[in-house]
Amino acid sequence: MVSVEGGGAPVSSGIEIRRLVKWYGSQPALRGIDLAVAPEEILALFGSNGAGKTTLLRILAGRVRPTSGTIRVAGHMLDRDGNEVRRALGVLAHGHQLYEALTARENLAYATAMLGLDRPGERLAQALSRVGLESAADSRVRTFSSGMKRRLALAKLMLREPKVILLDEPFASLDLQATKVLEEFLMASKAAGATTILATHNLTMGYGVADRVAILRQGRLVFDGRREETSLEAFRALFALHGEREEGG
Amino acid sequence: MSFARRVWAIAWKDLLAEWRDRESVTAMFYFAFLVLFLFSFALGADQALIRGASSGLLWLAFTFTSVLGLGRSIQGELENDCLDGLLLYPAEREAIYLGKLCGNFSAILVVEMVTLPIFAVLYNMDLWSQLPKLMVIAVPGTLGLAATGTLLSSMTAGLRAREAMLPFLLFPLTIPLLLAAVRGTEVVLLGEPFELAVPWLKLMAAFDTVVLVVSLMTFEYLVEE
């Protein structure tokens, strides 16, 4: 059972996780996570496959129900105010979540309608231009390379200004230019007060954009610290010490 | 306003994707044709037998093709994790259900409209003079099928055996609806007074209302993991 804390108005923003446990049948995925990420903070979460990174992000996005624990996202209890949480969220998931029969423009137009955004045409053109897909705007997504699809997914994320951003392997399939666009978006969102958690295998890229770095291993948070307290080399050694293998970095 | 905009956006997206690929509609139409074609051989040239069985055969074809269409509709959402993306929007779950329902209902109805002339030719029936009355029966019948199927296909989307589970759940649940649709269609095809179809229409309307209310109330819980 997910407990419900307090009664009335939201008391804080950012992300607060207390004693989060998730079991898939008899298999533990998360074994008691306590974590708080403040507004204007970017947390990079590292861990090997099966460490529980994606499960944690899916729980925060409200797509997987936790076994127990308390979660507050952008000041709203996740189990009680699902729609308010979704309104605050921007998610870049592992799958690109695009309809391949539609064009890039149609996919974004659909997203603006679903998000209930004003000035949809302007936002759509701006997002396409930021990821460099203006010339491919009227091509079907089916004809895109995986990098282009990832950029379009990024454009979808950029249609609005989320308060909480969840990114699952955000650097996968992105070229240097698109990675720079993502980094600029994260910095702009941070300046606007957004809270970000990104889960990645890529130590160099994740460390580069984060304020805080954490290591998740077999469902447990085994390290959580400020980036400036640990050099990349020291963090890499710590990562290896926990038996993790770096990829793409 | 944004509720209606979201319902329209989902239905528009489904229909546009279907129009572009024509995968689902083509498969549904071909399947409906096959069912009617094979049964026309099985029944032979006995006109009395054909007239007695025709409304049942027509709804058999409609029901089977609906299952095909509903299955493919949810399959489209499962590709590239689009269903996850859809459920991550800050949209009322009722709007998502109604949007998917509108898309499914329109696609099934289009296939039915294309199937009717083939049915008329294969079974030597004069449908044209009865077409408006036939539509009065077909629309609530199709709405009930689409409403039940949209709920069940979303519910079984996460299951490995979803292709088997959808018909397994849909057919028994829609027995009252199909019974009413078959009887109503029979009245029209046999040229009996349309008043005889009114009780069946009422049954279909009641079925549709119950399914819509239950679906709108439960969709949120059924699509969450």
Biggest chain contact: A-B, 29 and 28 residues
Query: End-to-end distance of chain B, in Å?
Result: 29 Å
Question: How big a fraction of the residues of chain B is strand?
Answer: under 5%
Distance between the termini of chain A: 39 Å
Shape of chain A: globular
Order of helices and strands of chain B: HHHHHHHHH
Number of strands of chain B: 0
Class by SSE composition of chain A: alpha/beta
| Envelope shape of chain B | globular
Q: Which structural category do the helix and sheet elements of chain B fall into? A: mainly alpha
Major pleated sheet of chain B: none
Would you give an account of this structure?
The complex is a heterodimer of chains A (249) and B (225). In chain A, the strands form two sheets. In chain A, strands 6-7-8-3-9-10 form a six-stranded mixed sheet, sandwiched between helices. In chain A, strands 2-1-4-5 form a four-stranded antiparallel sheet, covered by helices on one side. Chain A has 249 residues and is α/β, with parallel strands linked by helices. Chain A is built from eight helices and ten strands. Chain A is globular and about 50 Å long. Chain B has nine helices and no strands. In chain B, helix 3 (47-78) crosses helix 4, helix 5 packs across helix 9 and helix 6 crosses helix 7 (162-173). The model of chain B has no long low-confidence stretch (mean pLDDT 91). At the A-B interface, helix 2 and helix 3 of A face helix 1 and helix 4 of B.
Task: Walk me through the topology.
The complex is a heterodimer of chains A (249) and B (225).
Chain A: E1 15-24, E2 27-37, E3 42-46, H1 53-60, E4 68-73, E5 76-77, H2 82-88, E6 89-92, H3 104-115, H4 120-130, H5 146-157, E7 164-168, H6 176-191, E8 195-200, H7 203-209, E9 212-217, E10 220-226, H8 232-241
Chain B: H1 2-21, H2 23-43, H3 47-78, H4 82-88, H5 93-122, H6 131-155, H7 162-173, H8 175-189, H9 198-223
